[in-house]
Design a protein that fits this description.
The protein is mainly alpha-helical. The protein is 42% helix and 0% strand. The protein has a domain at 10-42. The chain contains three helices and no strands.
Length: 78
Amino acid sequence: MADLLVRGLDEEVVRTLKARAAAHGRSAEAEHRDILQRVLMKPRRRSLADVLASMPDVGTDADFERVQSTGEPRRVLD
């Protein structure tokens, strides 16, 4: 395990870290370790392009065509 020393933190950041640690019932060091691990080790977010590319190819283009409104309410359950 490596050690990490963080210098030059704003006092408000330290107070907030200690308050958050106390709320979780652990030391400021343990809270700091947990925050770093959760933020840095979480899976990367996928781009919109990746999400769209992973969508299954279903239906036809005609299923998604825009229909011009006639001004009357559409009856969808008839």
